[in-house]
Automatic annotation (TrEMBL):
It comes from the Bacteria. This is non-specific serine/threonine protein kinase. Residues 34-282 form the Protein kinase domain. The keyword ATP-binding applies.
């Protein structure tokens, strides 16, 4: 979106009186439709102000881009494309960007309007408090990976990941800023993958490398490699052995996988890396690791917020060192959601009780911002139990009815079991949801297979053709049906309605439910009956995270002393056309 406003004379400083004090807000052009409240500081990307939408009275953060960035048309062009791809993204692990505004007058001016978010940057936590400890480090990495997975769903990589653009909210939730715009490996040398120093473009693999490097720093208080020059950094990342011996033993394999020198040896996706994290964390610290880690991060946020913010290191940005950002983005009417492109964290207010806001910006050193039904035809539907999770179940059904489509990743692990899948689904009124997925299991499903499940039929890709079979057929059809049962909204809400224990902190819910009761549910009861037989357990424990609209973000199920884990991540909730059956034939 481009808007016009009369440009102020060169060098003019727009000032407003706030609480009896004058605050320099920004030079020249300002974004129409907002009243500036106060100057929040700046960084290499430009000045950030706290603003109020004149129409809605919503407080936002506005980043006015530095003139050097405005002059880089190639960079701005890439970012416009990124913004278009991400304009519909809403994810609790990503800070929202509302608008990208350009002044069409000759005097120019470019700004990013984004969410005002509470919290402090992970960089600030590490600088003021040192190592975060294994549980907090795992929790931070989990949030980072979920944010990266949301970006992958829009085919956009981060490209500039470092602790300064990981925001940690007061409740301990980690959120990402700075998607889609990088300044080159020299701007964040401690986190830049080996291939970036050789001129490669940012990728999923380089993002996961950066996430693993941040994880190491959370564990130890320092990055995994050090150097004094660009050539030295490149050699360190390419040649220095991964210092796995400096982290707790149960986490070494996880770290080594993420910091693999060759991109192809790292996890294939953020969702896969998140599933590995879950398994390692549960094995090392038990099923409550996430709540404990998030609690520790919340403590660190409060401690870091009470300490004066250190001055960020200065890093030169040159065209020679700039990483090419992935393409995708453009203009559109209205204030839209997209992922933050630039990040900066600024303290507003005084003392420990002051408010902390995060906004997108690109402060290369220290801080960025943050801020958080299908019916089955197999049997009559039994009466809906009114367990302690029933109210949340109703809210989830209502929210997902409005945006009935989403992308998902799935993993089931346990003794002798390893199933993975990713794809998308659409809820269908009065029937089972329709799924399209790529999945792998064991035995005759060990090779990745493409499968679509609609009602009672499965469509399996065989070469260039599709083969239709009942979902009860062995192999890919029955495995796809199991995946649908594990993560469908109807299965999730039944889990909540049958809960025997139920508690929550913020957007995270935890409870237990009887496997016998779940095994009697039509449509997906067979999955829970199978879990009961395989594990000998009488109940299942669940951990559920929802977004601000009460739509699922992550569901973890655990059953048995030697546990079977089922992990489903949900992203990109939207209203899309239903999944159609493919044409079958030879």
């Amino acid at each position: 979106m481009s808007v016009s406003r009369a440009a102020a004379p060169p060098g003019f400083h727009r000032r407003r009186r706030i609480g009896g004090m004058a605050h320099t807000v920004v030079d020249g052009w300002t974004v129409p439709g907002f009243t500036h409240e106060r100057d929040l500081g700046g960084g290499s990307a430009g000045r950030v102000v706290l603003g109020v939408d004149d129409m809605t009275q919503t407080k936002v953060a506005i980043r006015y881009l530095d003139k050097r960035l405005e002059a880089d048309e190639a960079l701005l062009s890439r970012y416009r494309m990124v913004a278009r791809r991400l304009s519909q993204l809403e994810d609790p692990n990503v800070v929202d960007l509302y608008d990208f505004v350009e002044n069409p007058s000759p005097s120019g001016g470019t700004a990013i309007v984004m969410e005002r978010a509470e919290g402090v940057s992970l960089r600030r936590i590490l600088a003021s408090r040192g190592p975060a400890g294994p549980l907090a480090a795992l929790s931070a990495l989990g949030g980072v990976l979920l944010g990266l997975a949301a970006g992958e769903g829009r085919e956009v990589v981060h490209g500039a990941l470092r602790p300064s653009n990981v925001m940690v909210a007061p409740g301990g939730e980690a959120r990402l800023t700075d998607f889609g715009l990088g300044f080159g490996p020299a701007a964040g040398p401690a986190y830049a993958a080996p291939e970036l120093w050789e001129g490669a473009s940012p990728s999923v693999a380089s993002d996961l490398y950066a996430a693993a490097a941040i994880f190491f720093e959370c564990l130890t208080g320092r990055p995994p490699f050090t150097a004094r020059s660009a050539s030295g950094w490149g050699r360190a990342h390419r040649e220095t052995p991964i210092p796995v011996d400096q982290v707790p033993g149960p986490l070494r394999d996880l770290l080594a996988h993420g910091l693999a020198k060759e991109p192809e040896k790292r996890p294939t996706s953020a969702a896969d890396f998140a599933a590995e994290l879950e398994e390692a964390a549960v094995a090392a610290y038990g099923p409550s690791w996430e709540a404990q880690g998030r609690g520790r991060l919340a403590e660190l946020v409060g401690e870091a917020a009470a300490i004066p913010e250190p001055a960020p290191p200065k890093i030169r940005v040159t065209g020679q060192n700039r990483i090419a950002a992935p393409s995708g983005g453009g203009r559109g009417g209205g204030r839209r959601k997209a992922v933050v492109a630039l990040a900066a964290l600024v303290v507003v207010g005084g003392g420990a009780g002051g408010a902390y806001f995060a906004m997108g910006g690109k402060k290369s050193g220290d801080d960025p911002p943050h801020p958080s039904q299908e019916a089955s035809t197999a049997a009559p539907t039994p009466p809906v139990p009114q367990g302690p999770g029933a109210a949340l179940a109703a809210q989830i059904r209502d929210a997902t009815t409005r945006t009935p489509s989403a992308s998902f990743t799935f993993r089931r692990s346990g003794p002798g079991v390893n199933v993975t899948a990713h794809g998308s689904f659409t809820l269908v009124t009065g029937a089972e949801p329709s799924y399209t997925m790529q999945l792998t299991g064991s035995g005759d499903t060990k090779r990745a297979g493409r499968t679509i499940v609609i009602g009672g039929n499965a469509y399996v890709r065989a070469g260039k053709t599709w083969r239709q079979t009942p979902v009860s057929a062995k192999g890919y059809p029955s495995l796809a049906a199991q995946i649908r049962s594990a993560g469908s909204v109807s299965a999730l809400t039944a889990l909540l309605e049958n809960s025997t224990k139920f508690q929550h902190t913020g957007a995270v819910y935890q409870g237990t439910a009887s496997l016998a009761a779940l095994g009697q549910q039509p449509g997906f009861g067979a999955l829970y009956a199978d879990l009961a037989r395989a594990t000998g357990a009488q109940e299942i424990t669940f951990f559920l995270r929802v977004d601000k609209a009460n739509r699922p973000v992550q569901l973890k199920l655990r059953a048995g002393a030697k546990p079977h884990w089922l992990l489903t991540n949900y992203t990109e909730w939207a209203h899309k056309p239903p999944i159609a059956a493919p044409k079958t034939g030879a």
